Amino acid sequence: MRDNELGAFLRASRARVEPADVGFAGGVSGRRVHGLRREEVAVLAGVSADYYARLEQGRERNPSAQVIGAIGRALRLPLDAREHLYKLAGLNPGLGQDGSRDLVHPSLLQMLEAFPRAAAYVLGRAFDVLATNPIADALLSPFGAERNMVRILFTHPQSKAVFTDWQLLQRSTVYALRLNAGRFPDDAGIKELVAELGKTSPEFRALWETHSVGNLTRAFKVFVHPEVGRIELTYQTFDVVDAPGQVLLVGTPEPGSRSEDALTYLASTAGPV
């Protein structure tokens, strides 16, 4: 719970829950804060108000899994956010100790080549692009040597032109990065990236301070590539089991579409990675 990230997450989470949504009558008149009061969260979770206050203030540092689970339910947190809550409470401290986290297994590199008509790449914990197939490499070529997706979305001058849903991607990426920060609290790459962008990007800082979390999931993305124009892809995301924190993303076009033709052209012009 370094820097009381747990307390900040709890405060942000209870601010999003309307009292009426959890059975408290009386509306919001007379309230000095948005959402639930500390005492109301304590009642819903079945803990004392003093205990919950100490937990939120960072003075209680050893909550049980049962208590954290009850608080997660009281705050109506979705699955991803509950997992994040457990990590912030230190209830899975050994998850982030794999020192080889940025190494891509040779078999996974071979798998990338098994998608000749799709954009496939591997992301690390801080969303560095660790490996690509030729199509993905060509698709990301407008960003030059930059290979961190968070920096691309918040600092690269081409990001707005290439991604039509630029702001949506910004939000989902920051939420997923914060989820990884909870999963891997000792990861230096995540810490350095957050510190850097927190200083240089007001947009990143504002999204980070919402304490929202979410996984990278199936998504529809539209690229506007400078060579071939608009490309529409449906992305699937797969966790790499033997390298916690790595994910494989595979973007496929609709069969017979112009997007498929565009990827075919990129494949024909792409050299080896």
Automatic annotation (TrEMBL):
It comes from the Bacteria. It holds the Pfam family HTH_31. Residues 31-82 form the HTH cro/C1-type domain. PROSITE patterns: HTH_CROC1 (PS50943). InterPro entries: Cro/C1-type_HTH (IPR001387), Lambda_DNA-bd_dom_sf (IPR010982), MLTR_LBD (IPR041413). It comes from Actinomadura nitritigenes. This is Helix-turn-helix domain-containing protein. CDD domains: HTH_XRE.
